[in-house]
Amino acid sequence: MLHYAVVFFVIALVAALFGFGGIAAGAVEIAKVLFFIFIVLAVVTFVFNLIKSKP
Description:
Helix 1 packs antiparallel against helix 2. This protein is elongated. The two termini are 16 Å apart. The chain is mostly helical. The longest helix is centred in the last third of the chain and has 26 residues. The protein has one domain. InterPro entries: DUF1328.
């Protein structure tokens, strides 16, 4: 499950690069929304992993 958190975080970083870096001028708003969606998914997955792994 931690693997998914890392994957979501990497996708969020790529979306941030496109959205906040100005690389994809036509898709800036979409990239910004995707950034926040994948950051939330990464945090939620990481928290669930912490809760699940406790004895």
